[in-house]
Every structure is written in structure tokens, then in C-alpha cells.
Amino acid sequence: MTPDTEITPELLEHLLKTEGVEKTLRLFTDRYNAITERHKADVDAWKSGFDAVITFAELAVKSLLLLCGGAAVALLSFAGNRGATGQASLDAYATAVALFGGAAGGSVATAGFSYLAQSSFNSQKSGWLLFAEWLRTIAIIIWFASLVAFGYGVWKASDAVTLSRWEHIEILPGK
After folding, report:
1. pTM of the model
2. Which one of 59, 86, 140, 175 has the fewest beta carbons within 10 angstroms of its own beta carbon?
3. Ramachandran class of 20: left when φ > 0, alpha when ψ lies in -120 to 50, beta otherwise
């Protein structure tokens, strides 16, 4: 009997009458069940790890958005309450706010690229998998660039606060 042999009712009846077939079927069934259970355990372990990765990625994107948006609002509020009138400090505040806004926009773009990447990964087609890798790489680069922009924005905000302090001091009185 070869793998291509057609299983007819007569052949099946003959196989079932063969001595030890029940034992062989039980062994194959037990082995199949063991392999299936191991596969389920492997998938469950992989899934919990994958879910953790997705959760941390969501947290990173949301945190960056909250951090940058909050920083922009706080800086605008601070500049407004401070009443900075000097052009140098206003320029520095504007630069910092633009960096924070750009970083917040970058975190939103990261979420969008991540969604597209995951959708492409879910298609499980070879052409889409390569596209998904590119999208994921772009999302990571945008997120990292947004984080750098946030750091640079903090530095520029610090400069703005320092400039606004010094602009109100008269160095040479009466001039």
C-alpha cells in the first residue's frame, strides 16, 4: 500500500480486521494528541509574549504622545503667564513648542505605521511580509526621531526660560 492508494470500504474493512490495529490507532491518536497539546502550549507561550510586546509598544507610543502634547501645552501656558516680550525668548519658546508638536505628530504617525505593519503581517503573504517589515522599521525610526525631538525641545524650552529671565534685566540702567 502506497500513500497514493485509494482507501476503499473493502480496504478499510481489511485494515480494521488486522491484528493490533486498535493498539496502533491508539498509539497514533495519543501521539497526535500530545503533539497538538504541545503545539497549543507553544502557541499560548508565544501569544503571551507577543501580547506583552504589543502592550509595551502601545504604552511607548501613547506615553510619547502624552509627554509631547503635555509639554507643548505646559510651555505655551508658561510662556503666556510669564509675559515674555523679548523676541529671542519668544523664538526659543516657538522652537520648543514646534519640536513638541512635531514629536506628538510623530507618535501619531508611529501608531499609524504600526497599524499598517501589523495588518500587513496578518496577511501572511510573502510580498506583504517584506512590506510589513519596512513599515515596522519606519514606525520605529519615526518613534525614535520623535523621542529625540522631544529631548531637543526640552533643551530649547530650557533656553527659552533662561532667555526670558535675562531679557527683563537691564544691564546698563538708563539706556
Report:
1. 0.66
2. 175
3. left
Averaged over 52-80, what is the pLDDT? 86
Distance of CA 16 to the CA centre of its chain: 55
What are the grid coordinates assigned to 82, written together?
510669564
21-82 helix and 87-123 helix, angle to the nearest 10 degrees = 170
Dihedral of CA 113/117/122/125: which sign?
positive
Would you say 157 and 70 are in contact if contact means Cβ atoms under 8 Å apart? no
Give helix 21-82 / helix 9-17 axis angle, nearest 10°: 100
- pLDDT, tens only, 114-152: 988 888 888 877 788 888 899 999 999 999 999 999 999
| Per-domain boundaries in the chain | 9-167
